[in-house]
Amino acid sequence: MRSTLPVILNRSSGSAEDREADDRLRSAFRAAGAEADLHRAENGEDVVRLARQAAAGESEVVVVGGGDGTLGSVASVLLGGEKAMGVLPLGTLNHFAKDLKIPLHVEEAARTVVEGRAVRVDLGEVNGKVFVNNSSLGLYPRIVRHREEQQQQLGRGKWPAFFWATLHALHWHAPLDVLLSVEGREVRRRTPFVFVGNNVYEMEGFDIGSRARLDAGELSVYLAPGARPLDLVFLAVRAFLRRLRGSKDFEVLRTTELRIETRGRQARVATDGEVLVLDTPLRFRSRPGALRVVVPRETEDRKSP
């Protein structure tokens, strides 16, 4: 008898394209030996509601299809429990899936959900908000906010809007004055951004933005003290050329907990690409092994009968 898996999709329904995508998903799961019970979410609150319903059901796996922000919403429901999250990478960048070596093609991802193995990975948290990849304040939240304005008001595509939003944010560069409390010491910095990663990010070469592991139980913190807009351009070039280490304009900290004070009572904070307004101080912490995720089996396991 085929098992039935709840599948949460973060997109609206009704178009012929949606129905075709749904049929493709169902076929992919049937080919892997399971049935997909599809549920469409209209917004973030819908994602959480459907995840709670699925977590209360009989299935040991709750499948989610969407971008990293959607995965983070489902992770917030499943954290600390025994239900595992199955991932269908249907977003733009899919960093979380890539770092866990989950296939990006629908058919292969569905087979991974059915035939894979569950492992425990860490989550990050800021003021109670869970993130699977990273959280940041300063430059990036401003870029995201301006990109969304361009998409809504000017009808620009995501990538053109992101390009112009980046130029706008750099032009109206406003550095942050922050006080970081890390491992019992205080660090005061003036920086265009503070980037907090769930585990350590590769910051040089062709693998920039990737993580070798998601189970080290730590946060990585990146800053650019005193950097101006042009300095950030040079930093990006140095990172690509693997010459970032030792730069006076780039600083890396590693910790399990972090407290950030800003001048304002509230701060715009991006978590997995979604911008929130949170009360300060911001309290970050690592949640080691908080989430079970289905990942591909090892090559030798696939070859075994």
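That was protein one. Protein two is written in the same sequence-then-structure order:
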Amino acid sequence: MDRRRALAALALAALPAAAHAQSGKVRRIGFISFAAAPPFYDAFRAGMADLGYVEGKSVVFHTRFGGGSERLEDVAAALINERPDLVVAAGGPAVRAVRAASTAVPMVFSFSGDPVAAGFASSLAHPGGNATGISLMSLDLVGKRMELLKEAMPHVKSVAILANPDHPGEQLERKTAIASADALGLDNRYFQAQSVAELDSALAAIAKLGAEGLVVFPDALTIAHRQRIAEGALKARLATVSGWAEFVESGFLMSYGPNLQASYRRLATFVDKVLKGANPGDLPIERPSVVEMAVNTRTARALGHEIPRAIVLRADRVVK
């Protein structure tokens, strides 16, 4: 009997990590989001499956979706009360809500802003605390978006910049965008929006301004109301650009930035490391490694223009 046990132990030790994920105890993973519908949740689940986790056998997901920041802290508290092994927080409002509920439960996040400026981490290299993940903000991409807009729509001579001043890292992003616009000879003006009401007011003011382009910084507010912005911009004859392809899917003209599907799939790697004993505070926060350009030729036609074929051919996604 002892010999059989020894052989079984050796066989188990020889199994790959994926098999260990399936043969161990069932892990309980919370997933919380600001939005009413789960943004990119399926991409995260696919990433977990890639690592050998089988839903219902080695992992169970507990999903909670707020539908508005005013409810999110209650939603996060209820999720923490279920005693998950780890929580995945999608977006800044979700991260803040989880932090308010607990600073002990390990957390992996995806955040559109600067996690250091937000107070989520001590530094990107050494986050400290109980959280780590991916920051979707990259100042290197801001100028490229402005350049692509000008290349696609050479007639554009002035742009409005729309952003939330409370979004961590926004000031640096705004400074970079203004410098890029100045370098391209584009007149520019900044508009802020911290709520839906301010968003509508800003769009109305931008329409009266007579600008030809609109640069929108991605955050929880603008992604949640991206179609509203796209429709308002189209009525005002504005060529729109932002950082995520999901804006283009909702009617924006262009985007250049991280592939969110790939980023959320990547979050599974962080979760796997933490479940295997890593301290989240010791895992460096990453920037997205997969960048994409998206264009909407239908929106271009509605504006009375055509996107140059050279740009369309370079695009990773084309909405027709």
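The chain has a mean pLDDT of 91. Keep this in mind for the problem set.
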